[in-house]
Amino acid sequence: QFSDTGSRKEHVKITSESKPGFLERLSETSGGMLMGLVTFLLSFYLLFTNEGRALRTAKSLDEGLSLVIPLDSIHSVSQQNEGRLVHLAGALSTSKPLFDPSYGLSIQAVKLKRNVEMYQWVEYEESTEYEENGEIKKETKYSYNTEWKSEVVNSRNFDREIGHKNPSAMAVESFTAVSPNVQVGSFVLSKGLVDKIDNFKQLSLANLEDPHADVTRGGDYFYHSENPRRPEVGDLRVSFFYAGLSGDDPHLGPADKVTVIARQRGDELVPYHTKSGDVLQILYAGDLSVEEVFQKEHASNTMKTWALRAGGWLAMFVGISLMTRIFYTLVDWFPVVRDLVNIGLKAFAFCVASSLTLLTISIGWLFYRPLWALLIGCLSVVPIVVAKSRVPPKKQQ
């Protein structure tokens, strides 16, 4: 079946295979049990190391807050602060503008990104499975649409490449230029600090002329196309983004201000190594006080900690579910029993994963905060107790 709705094309493919027997499904379940065991063990490692990382980071931030020295001036380098953790805020400055000679564009900024997109065919796939005449049939609908993509879409992997062929490469490449020398006042930022300047904004091309005869400007894009309003597969469009405006610009405004906390080494700002083993080199956009910076860092550490805790719990839940899947397979022939067993296995995986996650977190805290570790360890038995209390008592004989 084939249909064409404008630039969108669709076709449907139906494949069938015999329904797997009991031994075949049992073999597949055994493989899943092995994957589940690996996932289960990895979840312990993730949860345990995450707690150590979170506490180490928190101690490092507290150490940094107690040692940091706000600078009185960013335009002079004081030898008294050599090797110490310092705080300063000011406008970014760079030694020279960044250029893209191919498009006649320059800007005084820390970073300049050229983003190239190509008009290409994109394949989408939707599948449904159903049983018919003792066979498992899979109906797959493939749809094709033309879109702007910043990466080359390999049409050789399409189910139907004929009529949907994409070029194998782009005639113009994307790139990001970074200023070799970035300063705040008299202080030079380290590479790690420069990497943190990533608040990219799209550059307006309204004040630029078309760089070549085969390039047309439309809005904030340069088009390599005969008709940008009706592009063809293989046409390109180019846009530009900048981060860290480092000079007053009549169209973009004043230079961006940043707040930095790092170690002073001469006129350079470099990483500071804490006693806990962490590294402090912090940069935020805007003019922030010392307290505001460390509040943001603590909030970021808390968010990362909870995200990894959730990821560890999910990995443990999936691992337990895969390891206990064999019980579902054994009763798969009995629909009512199968559904009840499936609900029970999910509840079992949820309770065990929750208890083991809390227990692992408490062990991670044992060497740092023993009282908290004991409290969390006690909480780890709650899911099991709750689950056991919901089981109806056996009837007396």
Automatic annotation (TrEMBL):
Coiled-coil residue spans = none
Query: Key word Nucleus present in the record?
Result: yes
Please give the GO cellular component terms listed in this UniProt entry.
Answer: endoplasmic reticulum membrane; nuclear inner membrane
Q: Which UniProt keywords apply?
A: Endoplasmic reticulum, Membrane, Nucleus, Transmembrane, Transmembrane helix
Q: Where in the cell is it found?
A: Endomembrane system; Endoplasmic reticulum membrane; Nucleus envelope
Task: Report the superkingdom from the record.
Answer: Eukaryota
Report the sequence similarity comment from the record.
Belongs to the TMEM43 family.
The protein's name:
TMM43 protein
